[in-house]
Structure formats: structure tokens, C-alpha cells
Amino acid sequence: MGFLSPAGELYLLYLSCEAAMSDLFLPFMAGANTVEEQRARWERKRSRTAKELLETEHKYLEQLDLVVTFFMTILKAKGTLKPAVLDTIFGPLESIYAASQVLSLHLERGNLGLALENFCQNLELYGHYAENMQQANKSLEEQLKKNKSFRRFKKLQETRPQFQGRKLEDLLPLPLQRLHQYKHFFRDLLENTIPDNAEYQKLAKTVKCVSEVSEWVQDIVRRRENTLQLRRVQKLLKGQKTQILVPGRWYIREGWLSVVPSKGEELKHRMFFLFSDIFISTKPCHPLHPLNSKKLACQAVYPLHQCVVDKVFGHTQSQGGLLSLSFPHKRLLLMSSNQQDINDWYRSLTAAVRKLKD
């Protein structure tokens, strides 16, 4: 190998420096490409979500239009229903329909910012619609029973080809179903929008607003379902001595358990009901009783705030288990041959007692 000239040595030094600099900047260049690729992925997902939001909004509008055009508008003109009854059955549906038209128009034009602002201003309509739903269903049932002309009108409208076999009862819950869809659409849009985007803050505000109204609606539904459960249990009990429908009371669970007697007698099979503040023991009425053969007689009502719950056995994978419920003047030993069942009862009882004492 020959010796390099000073110029050759200098050139080799330059090449080695260039290679080193290239290696140094390569991760940054790769990082830059990765960031750009990530942004591109976000934008593609965002575009797909925005497209799906608009497409489903059009379908939602078509369905609302069936109710507004073929029911509300004609019923108002004909006077088949009194204005107060009409308002009760349909609630703020017309306003929800108008808000959806505006949202759809802004989305079509690509004005997401304006769409979000208008949408947030009208979100409370969905909460009011949910609050009215129970009374709306009750009023609709009443009119179908006693108003022959309305019953005939409803049946005729539902046979139109636009309805595709759907009934009015199928269409009225649509706004609450759509609210649930909005929650997912706007959350997905937010997740695929970069924070320095001008619409990011508006999307974040919209997601917060939708979540708050969704929680409001879910609370209405939970309270309604709880009231139905309380009424069902009240109807199951013989007589009215034990009042189940008490404000603030929540239904938790029910089921059969065996009561272990203190003096070696036979096990007593009883139906128990657990509520947020009381625990009720019942037994079936006589099967030949003319009025109460399918009802339950209340044996005892135990206040939960004075209760101490212990698991006597059932800690391991044994068959069934035994619970001890201690009250100031009474101790209950409850048994089940199903270990999962006794574990569920233990969790439910301890959670209810803890919540009362917190």
C-alpha cells in the first residue's frame, strides 16, 4: 500500500466526517419521517370519522323526518291530538330535528368549528327529551287506547313505504341512541386531531359537553329503571304494610337463601330483597290463597345502617357458603349451596352497608 499525499489524507478525513455527520442526523431524519407519517395516519382516521359522522347524520335526519313530516306536521294541521298531548308525546323532537339539519349543513360545507359551536348550544335538548320520555310513552299508550281516530291515523302512516315496516315506537327513541353515537364520533375526532389544530379546543369542549349530557341521560334512565324495580317488588308483596317506594331508595338485588335456625331446626328457604337502606326477608304465600297465591309475605325488614356482615365460610373453593348478618337485636345466618351466589351476596351487602356508613 502506498502512502497518501497530504491532499488525499485531507479528503479521507472529509469523507469520514461526512459519514459521521450522516449517521448523526439519520435518527433525526427518521424521526421527522415518523412524525409526518403519524400525522398522516391521524388525518386519514379523522377524515374517515368525519365522513362517517356526516353519512350517519343524513340517515338520522331521514328517520327524524318521518316523525316530523308524517306525524307531527299532519297531526297539528288535523287537530287529531290536543296541543298539550302532542307536546307530551313528541317533546322537543322538532327542535332536535332542526339542530340536526344545521349540524348536517355545516359538516357538508366542512365547517367543523361552526358545527361544533351550534351542536353544543343545542345539546340540552337531548337531556330534556330523555326527561320527557317516560311521560311520552305513557301518553302515547293512553291515546292508542282511547283515541280511535289517532289509532287509525298511526296505523295508516306506518304502512307508508318510507317507514319500511318501522313503527312510531321504533323511531321515538332515536335521539337518545344518536346521543350515544355522538359521544364516540367526537371522541374519535379529538383523538385524531393534533393539539395545535385550530379545532382541537372546540372538539375537546364538545366531548366534555356530550359526556355531561350523556351522564345526565344515563342518570334519568337509571332512576326510571330503579322506580320500575321498586314498583315490581311492591306488587310482589302481600298488602301495603311494607312500603318499598321510598324516595332515595335504590334496588340492588334479590334471590333465594336458606336461613339457618339457631336451635337446630330445619333450614328455612326465604326470598330476600336488598335495597340501598334495608334488607327484606319474605316467604311465599299459600299456593291456594284466592288473592295472594303468587305473592310474597314480608317476614322482616332489617335496617342496613345497623348491620355487620361476615363470611363464616365460603372463603375457599368449597361448595357454597354461609353469611352472618348481625343487627342490634337479631343475628341472621344465611346459607347457599352456590359459592358464586354467596360471594355475590357478600359483596353486595358489604358495599351497601359501607356506602350507608361513609
Detailed description of the structure:
The chain has helices spanning 6-78, 83-90, 93-108, 112-122, 124-146, 148-158, 168-171, 174-191, 200-236, 339-357; strands spanning 251-259, 268-275, 278-284, 296-303, 308-313, 321-327, 330-336. It has 358 residues and is of the alpha+beta class. The chain has a 7-stranded antiparallel β-sheet with strand order 4-3-2-1-7-6-5. The radius of gyration is 33 Å and the shape is flat.
What is the helix content?
55-70%
Mean pLDDT, rounded to whole units? 88
Spatial order of the strands in the main sheet?
4-3-2-1-7-6-5
Largest sheet: 7 strands, antiparallel
Helix-strand category: alpha+beta
Summarize the helices and strands and which ones pair or pack.
Layout: H1 6-78, H2 83-90, H3 93-108, H4 112-122, H5 124-146, H6 148-158, H7 168-171, H8 174-191, H9 200-236, E1 251-259, E2 268-275, E3 278-284, E4 296-303, E5 308-313, E6 321-327, E7 330-336, H10 339-357
Features:
flat, 10 helices, seven-stranded antiparallel sheet, 358 residues, alpha+beta
In short:
61% of the residues lie in helices and 15% in strands.
